[in-house]
Amino acid sequence: MTSEDKSAGILKAAWMIALVTIVSKLIGFVRDVVIANYYGTSLVSDAYFYAYQIPALSIILLGGVGGPFHSATVAIFSKLIPDLKDKPTDELNKLYSTFMTTTIILFTVLAVLCYFFAPQIMGVIASGGDPELINLAAEHLQIMSPVLVIGGIVGIYYGLLVTYRYFMLPNVSPIIMSLVIIIMVMTSGKNDHAGITLALATTIGAICQWIVQFPKIRQLGYRLKPNLDVIHNKNFQNICELLFPAVLSSTVGQIHIYVDMFFASSLREGAWTAIGYANRVFQFPVGILVTAFLVPLFPIFSRLVMEKDYEGIKNYFNKGVGVLFFGAIPIIIGILVLGIDGISLIFERGAFDAKATFMVAEALWFLSVSILPYVFRDSITRVYYSFNDSKTPFVVAFTSIVLKVFLNILFINILGMSIGGITLSTSLVTLFNACVLGALIGRKIKLNYGELFKNLLKMIAAGCITLVICAVCALLMDKFTPFMPKALYQILKICVIGFICLAVYTGLNLALKMDYAKELFNRLKR
Fold first, then answer.
1. What are the CA-CA distances from residue 251 to residues 67, 262, 517 (Å)?
2. Per-domain residue ranges for the chain?
3. Distant-in-sequence, close-in-space partners of 441: CB < 8 Å, separation ≥ 6
């Protein structure tokens, strides 16, 4: 098989993964809508989302696809398997058992500590909250503590499945967790006044993720025979050498969240829930945009680094980031102009009222300005990884913790910005990370920023004009269409303003002779 055939195969698999990720995000979005319908932005939802951040560290960050356990498993096991069609050797099975045994023991200890010290843990994280919030969050954490154990196991399963080129199952299994939560909450959510069903559904959903993957692991030939041969096992030591810095890198982002949780606990009831929903709304279009373009680009970057084709890296980087910038600006415009209408249409029912809608919109407005640095940061990070450098992104992210604390104090405690202060500080920290990473990459490769940012300035100019036109049109619609049913009007407004936004923005970019707009226009014509 030629290198071109291999690249085509990688791209095909990457696009399939991106498609499944989009479906997963859609179902996850439905899950959030269901939770909002039954719990709104209340003390109960705050308690759940405070408690969930700890098991989320295990099931999503450490054990998720792309997490440290997944990455370390792929890196080591792929080198030890000569033929993917063969059953694992005794040595390989022993390594699997050692890795699994130590993971289960470590995460079980953490789960037990979380269970027995839940009130103290929640007391630190939500120190500004009232005792009722802390006690309820502690109860939720106790219910979800088993998720900590499952996260590490599932991460190893993900790595083995990807090593054997079973790409779909690891990416499909998170959907199961969302479906379990949707079904259980819709079945008994009306009578769940303390959020116990929600916490229990999260635990059961995580267990289902493990159950779905277990048969395939058995079919591959892996059997767990507990052992702790950690001293003389060179391969296990190699796993640990990869795992430790990767775990630290994943944990840094979680520290940012804990900092925000600390400050949000002193704000009004429902503040942390509102920030959580704003992040989910933000991640829906942006996550799909980033996944669709960066998943296929990552293997291309790696191949070009291996071939030392630096001009190719510059070309693909500028094209990829340019397309991301081009797609990001209309998203920002949509959030600023249609944020309240969209949130109201999606979430505003049941316990989620107009007050909750505005809280989420406020958080989302300030978060929206981070989209451009967000897509640049994620793109440049892939270039670092292609050069086998995970240390620099970790160090930059770690140093930004101090900046995050300072900005939260400035915006919340000094300027009194409330919810918007937290998301604004997040946006500025994202900008800081993007700028520093963009500057430091020059030690490895000189990227052609001049052309990229020249095009960005043109897109921003077109975006500003489009924003004004869309805002005026939205005000006119609000004035002359007051007699329609609210939901129908919101759908009409989103469709009309969305069409105007795309038409004006694309037209202006065509006038500015932007290649991205020309390509989009030609595709639409065809």
1. 11, 16, 39
2. 43-254
3. 380, 383, 384, 447
